[in-house]
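Re: weekly structure request thread

Next one in the queue (259 aa):
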Amino acid sequence: MKNNKLLEIMNLKVEIENKVIIPDLSLTLDTGKIYVIMGPNGSGKSTLANAIAGSPKYKVTSGKLTFKNKDITSLKPDKRAQLGIFLSFQYPQEISGVPINIFLRESYNVLNPNNKLSILEFKKHINEKAKQLDLKPEFLSRYLNEGFSGGEKKKSEMLQLLTLNPDFAILDETDSGLDIDALRLVAKGINQFISQNRSKTVLIITHYKRLLEYLKIDKVFIMKEGKIINESEGSKITDELEEKGYSFLSDGENDDKKI
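Done, posted below.
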């Protein structure tokens, strides 16, 4: 039987500055799925995302992370990226003087050392991805996120996702503060990413169901106090969350449920 596991998290404990944020979390994500993590502020959602990506600020003190059957618990962030892990940031950094196309070509070639693209090859590659997002050519020559509106930052983010083509994309509150046009663009980017290779997996961290209405969600996890307290097939539970908030969920009712 084919093993579809992409990421397996076992008994993960994560600390920030000696404060435990995630005490003991286990989770398995399969290939070719769109997952969602929701939960109250401070529940550990972004901490989990950064721990998976290997951010040095987030210290894994026990447990294990396995990605594509490889133990990545001690791997540096760049090595995890080379394996195919992509993390978008809620507040992308501006990089003055570095055009988007140059940044992405350098990133692509670092992540694909055995399949580097020449300037002309990469130009064709990025132009195809920009066209999928209805981006004009001049957008590619702008400095990365410098002076960008919220919507433009998301355009840049989705272009990065399609161009770098990771196996696993973690989108941390990528829909925060977006108007309806920007929201649709993000959804289009995610759908394009999934459609170009059905083995890709996306983990969306969000507070809202707006973005989810444009996507086919496979499973929603609810986090509270660093634990997964509920899981639901599809996105139906998001309707209840929007109506009732998180108070209708009890962490006791799912304590023995294997994720």
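Residues 251-259 have pLDDT under 50 and may be disordered. The first strand starts at residue 5 and ends at 16.
Next request, please.
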